[in-house]
Amino acid sequence: MGMWSDGPAAIGMRRLSIIDLAGGHQPIFNESGRIGIVLNGEIYNYRELRAQLVAAGHSFRTHSDTEVIVHLYEDHGERCVEMLRGMFALAIWDADAKTLFLARDRFGIKPLYYAERDGAIAFASELKALVAAGETARTLDLVALDLFLQVGYIPAPRTPFVDVKKLPPAHSMMVRPNGAVSLREYWQLPKGTTEPSRDVGKQIREALDDSVRAHLESDVPIAALLSGGIDSSAVVSSMALLGTKAHAFTARYHGSGAANSDEVPLAQALAQKYGAQLTVVDIEPSVQDLLAPICFAMDEPISDESALPTWLISERVAQDYKVVLAGTGGDELFGGYRRHRALRLGSAYGLLPAAVRGGVSRAASLIREPQNGGLGLSRAKRFLRSGGGSVASRYADFVSRLSVEDFARLRGRERNAALHTRVFEDVLQQRGSDSAIRSALCIDYHTYLPDDLLALSDRIASAHSLEVRVPFVDHRLIDALFPLPDRLRIRRGQQKWMLREAVADRLTPAHMSAPKRGFVGPTAAWLRNELRDLLIDELSPARLSRLGLFDAPAVADWVTQHLTLRSNREGILWGLLCFSIWHRQMVESTPRST
């Protein structure tokens, strides 16, 4: 752990050594020792940047990627971040200019919280660090809570507390001696459509291989997370073709509902194709004791059901490795979610007269969900209900965990029931695209990806001293492929068509025909069985009455519906369970920063 203070400023960090194990201790300084930096993350193009800086006359004391940034800052100031390829949250203190510079990577892979209080700014990679330092009064942001209830995460810049913010992805912040604070967005998703090359499959493969090659930069061995999905399989196959036969790790579920989540045979088939070592991590049904450490690690409530398997597989990988590659981000680039296909179909459905759409939606709402508690009918109802609105409102309908009526019942008021829609509309107003699908992808990149998927994987892995790298979330890859036309993303009803076609020869026939599952456990079944007692206790009327935030009879009704198979309420119940545990840790007690 390294610390440095200079008058009114102090910076420090605890390092997970990946590059320059012996010499990369932080903070790191420029030649004069007057500009210091701390970095959480990795810079994959640091070698080429270092060569340029040496040619320009800079001298280096280490071989780390962090030192490159401090010299870039000397030459280019706040524009230095535009030259970085990687994932990062960084802070630079210039002792001569008395300025503090903060920056976060383009996609928010690494977290950065800050709080302005009494004319000063405190910042950290962990919210609990600001809590432990007494830099927040821990007053709940009720608007953030409403957003969490609707989508399962809190979009930046909001956090659970009114006096703490997240620096948005692709933003930097400069704090000047007079206390003036300025934010700058230094990168955006590319706009417009670019026609593909004659061989679009080759174009995609070359871009993917270039990104994977960059993400293999390390002074320690690198493993891989492997499910049966296209994305992680594409990453592992690319690693193999680049000469790295990664030790791959995959999850196998046990207990209630496990059969529907088993992708081990697909992972085994790919590992066998490339001669890679495969370790199967058993996800046992005794999961109730894991929720507390998971919620603590994530810093803010995130009700993503993939948290449990992510925790267990990260724990196992970390026994042997410090770095692991994952397939996160492929769906957001290539259109892999059901909502992307539904939005495309919805454009045609929305042309029907409003009276016809309304009648169909009302009829569908009368159909009871099947006894097995599946979500298929629920998704169909959302599709029928969403037709005719804006892209943002239709997107909101597809991702909402609560109807307007259920939200009003839970919170005792309807106000803010459509708050998430307004957040999505703001994203499109500022950065809108020219099609429904790419507009949805734009919302994904600015909300769901950084504040749910990437936040969850980074924080859970970090709790085990493990670094997760995500080659699909790379700005050079996205600059090259995001402008490709939507007709290549979804074709003949097939999601992620162009990626599937590009990597078909690298995978197995079984991968091409397998259904999309996602990296989640059988949450609905766990809530009815293994997590039943915890659910009933944590969401008891007495507990909810003490919180004073939710309507206890409404929650009790939903718990009963779920446990008796009358309705699948896993989305909201999982969210309320995670929030209640988080509230105990972060509001009702004072956590110690890790």
Secondary structure layout:
Layout: E1 2-6, E2 9-13, E3 28-29, E4 35-43, H1 46-55, H2 65-76, E5 86-94, E6 99-104, E7 113-117, E8 120-124, H3 127-132, H4 142-151, E9 165-166, E10 171-175, E11 181-185, H5 200-215, E12 222-225, H6 230-241, E13 248-253, H7 264-274, E14 278-283, H8 291-298, H9 307-317, E15 323-325, H10 330-334, H11 338-349, H12 354-365, H13 376-386, H14 391-399, H15 404-411, H16 419-431, H17 436-463, E16 467-469, H18 475-481, H19 497-503, H20 509-513, H21 523-528, H22 532-538, H23 541-547, H24 552-563, H25 570-586
Parallel strand pairs: 12-13, 12-15, 13-14, 15-16
Antiparallel strand pairs: 1-2, 3-4, 4-5, 5-6, 6-10, 7-8, 7-9, 10-11
Characteristic terms for this protein:
4 domains; alpha/beta; 594 residues; Glutamine Phosphoribosylpyrophosphate, subunit 1, domain 1; Rossmann fold; 5-stranded parallel beta sheet
